[in-house]
Structure formats: C-alpha cells, structure tokens
Amino acid sequence: MATLQFLGAAREVTGSCYLLRTRGGRVLLECGARQGREAEEADRQDHDELPAAFSHIDSVILSHAHLDHSGALPRLARQGFQGPIYCTPATADLLRVLLMDAVFLHLKDIQSENHWRERAGKPLLEPQFMPEDCEAVLKLCVEVGYGEATIVSPDITLRFHDAGHILGSAIVELEIAGEGRSRRVVFSGDLGNAESVLMPPPTAMESADVVLMEGTYGDRDHRPYAETVAEFVEALEAAHRDGGNVLIPAFAVGRTQEVLFHLARLHRTGRLKQSFVVLDSPMAIDVTQLYQRHRALLDPEDLAKLGGGRHFKQALDFLRLARTPEDSMAINRFQSGAIIIAGSGMCEGGRIRHHFKHNLWRRQTHLIFVGFQAQGTLGRRIVDGAASVRLFGQDIAVKAAIHTLGGFSAHAGQAQLLDWARHFKGKPRFYLVHGEEEALSTLQNAMRRAARIESVVPGLNDVIEI
Questions:
Q1: 417-443: per-residue pLDDT in tens?
Q2: Cα angle at 421 between 417 and 426, to 5 degrees?
Q3: Is the overall model pTM greater than 0.90, yes or no?
Q4: Alpha carbon distances (Å) from 341 to 337, 388, 414, 419, 444
Q5: Dist CA 466 CA 464 (whole Å)
Q6: What is the pairing mode between strands 320-321 and 455-456?
Q7: What pLDDT does residue 310 have?
Q8: What mean pLDDT do residues 43-56 have?
Q9: pLDDT at 45 over 70
Q10: CA–CA separation, 456 and 371 (whole Å)
Q11: CATH 3.60.15.10 fits 3-220+410-465, yes or no
Q12: Which helix (DSSP H) or strand (DSSP E) does residue 366 occupy?
C-alpha cells in the first residue's frame, strides 16, 4: 500500500513538502522552506532539526526552484541526506543561484540576530545550513528532461511535464506499480499563468488516479493581462513627461525577465522614451543569462515578437548591467530618464533601498510595483500610502508617484485552475494544496459548482492512501 503525507503547504502557501511511502522506498515530493515572519519565528524555536518524517528519505523530486519548494534542501543535506534529487536541467541551474543567495542572506540574518542576543545575554544561534551544504545539494541533482521516463525506485517511474510557471518548472507525474495494477499520481507543482509571456502554457494532463493541485489563487482571477501591460506603458510615459526616473522592485526569477520582455518590445518599436535602462541585481543578471541558456524552453511566439526569432540576449542589447556596488552607486548620477530594475521584490533588502534613498522623495520619480507586496514589508507600507519610510537611519519622504500593477503573476488564476482540472478523464481524486485555507475552500466550491469535480483540502500531517 502506498501512502502520501502532507508535510507542508497544506492550507498555506509555504514549505511545500509531501512524503510518498511505497514498498520501494520513501520519496520526498518537494522540500520547501517555510517563509514569512511567523515561520521564521517558529524556526528559531525549533532551530536545529527537521521533522522526524524527513529521516530515512531515499530520494527527492523537485517541481521547480523557488525556495518555498526547494529551500529546505540544504538543511536536509546537512543532516546527512545523500540520495538523488530529481529535477529539470533548468531547475538545477536556478538552484545554484537561489540557494547560494539564500545561504548568504541566512548567514547575514544569523549574524544580526546573534549581535543582539549576545548583548542581551541570550544563547547564540548556529546557522541551519552553510555554503558547503548548498554545494552538496547541487552535486545530488539528477537532471531529467520533460517527458523522459526515469526510474526513481523499484516501483516508481517519474515523468516531468512543463508547468509554465518559471524556467524549468514541472508538473510531476508518478506511476506507482502495485499488486494487480499501477496507480498514477499527478502533482501540479505551481501552474503558470497562460496569459503571461516567455513561459508556455501549462501542459494539459488527462490521466491520473490522484491529483495534487495547487490553489494559490483559487479564490480569484488576475486582472486581464493586456490591461496590465497598457498600465505599465502608461506609467513609463508619465515618468518621461515628468522628467523623472522609474524604479521597479522586481523578483530575480520570472518577474524581472517578464518586465525586460516588455521593455525590449517597446525599445524595438521605438516606444521606449527612457534613454537609460539598467538591471541592478547580480542575482537577476545571472538568472537572465540562464533564460538565454535555456531559451529552447521559452515560448517561441513570444521570442518571435522580439524580432524575427531573435535570441533573448540579443533583444536586450539596450540593457545595462550593474554587477558591482560601484556600478550600482554610479546609477545615482541619473536624476531623470532612467529605468532602474533592482531587488528585492518586496523592498525588504537589496539595492532598491539605496535607489529609494536617492529618488523616493522626488515628485518626478515613478515607482512601479509589478509584484505582490506582503503585509509587513517596506513595499506594502509604501503601497498603503506611507508619507515617509525609514532607510539607513534616515526618514525619507515618499513623494514619488506610485503604480501598483496587479496582472503580472506567474500563477494560474481560478479560471485557469478549473480549466486544467477539467482536462482529466474519469474521476481522479483531487487534493488541493499550496493555498491559504480560504482560497482553497473557494476553489473547492468552484470545482464542485462549475466543473462537477469533488476535491479534498487536506490538513498538515494528514495521510492518504494512494
């Protein structure tokens, strides 16, 4: 008998992790880090050990590289895991960038935390993982292309299918051999937004006995994509008329490349008025180069829109790259006519904060948010109308024009999730994961009402039979 246990991303959108037990072994489907302030506090209280269910794992299957799906891998390696980690080639490349950035930030946070702990006479914390643990993870990666059949254990065969979410993202299909008949499990991973650019639409799946489907946006649809692009263009034109700079905080994977695509199209058609466009994020630069390396995975129709099927890199020949701190500081010479794309996406760190210091107080500056700003972040305070923000020990007035674009999302909305679910033939058992409880409940009702599909919303640590 095969079972599946929900160890994370059950009625929440972080820490994606599911344990599959079969006669042939124990396979971890995803190994995500818990994110958010409450999760960080919980990790401090239970700092050293992963859950007991993580012990004696034979292998890991990874749908994509985002840290809420992969970020606990270094901790797993630190505790002695030496089995294979199955992922697509592009995911393996992205992992090197994301995990090394994660360990840098983790060690920086530990150093800061221990600074006040030492002054308060409290015990110091040890890092949960180190750079060598990230290197160990990368050495364990076994690259599997889309559609390739791979034997994971004596009774499990794996196939990846393009999920259209980020570069290398995959829908996971598992064929589990059993007495009398096999069972097929399909895990959606994070399904992409079919309207967004560069990534192809998610692969439609038709056959399964059990389906794990994400429901991040199960309670809503995104704003029409064309309207969002039009608003983006209007914001750039308004900044040109006002004679100010444009600041775009952006996540390094996916969102930055999407913004660059639209800037490239405007540049090619002569509609980009700004004379200086700079990508000020070493991490985003590295990821953008991976998009070029794996350009065969990008939507050919979108690449064609950049000019006769030109390579993604060639379409960005107008772009300047700021790798070093000196490159970044030099940007501040420009008081008008510049578009500055910098991390982090929610403005909690990274170089965007330095550009805020030099531009946020200027009325002619335009600040464009192209991603969700979570509660408690600097980005959210600005979106909510803060008159000033504290940066580098100074109060900086917020005089810039603020634009919040709601349609740039790499996740499928409710209607797209329903459409993906409708493609399955027969009556597979659906389990809704990776979503807040309200979003999953709304999606569950919509599936029943609009698609006549019954589903279950499992809780944390629930176990089901396959």
A1: 999 999 999 999 999 999 999 999 999
A2: 175
A3: yes
A4: 13, 22, 30, 34, 38
A5: 6
A6: unpaired
A7: 57
A8: 61
A9: no
A10: 30
A11: yes
A12: strand 366-369
Three-state DSSP class for 430? strand
DSSP character for 308? T
Burial label, 292 (beta-carbon count in 10 A; 0-12, 13-18, 19+): middle
**What separation in angstroms does the CA of 21 have from each of 82, 159, 189?**
18, 18, 19
Tokens standing for residue 293: 């390396």
Calculate the average pLDDT of the chain: 92
Q: How many CB atoms lie within 10 A of CB 263?
A: 23
Domain boundaries, the chain: 3-220+410-465, 225-404
Q: Which two tokens stand for residue 426?
A: 């027969």
Taking a C-beta distance cutoff of 8 angstroms, is the pair 176, 183 a contact? yes
User: Lowest-confidence range among 34-43, 170-179, 208-217?
Assistant: 34-43
Query: Which amino acid appears at position 412 of this protein?
Result: A
The C-alpha atoms of residue 334 and residue 432 are separated, in whole angstroms, by 49
225-404 to CATH, choices 3.40.50.10890, 3.30.465.10, 3.40.630.30, 3.40.50.300: 3.40.50.10890
Percent of the chain with pLDDT over 70: 95
* Share in percent of the chain as helix, strand, coil (round to 5): 35, 20, 45
Among the residues of 243-281, which ranges form H helices?
255-268
CB 400 within 8 A of CB 347: no
User: Three-state SS for 53?
Assistant: helix
- Give the three-state DSSP class for 281: coil
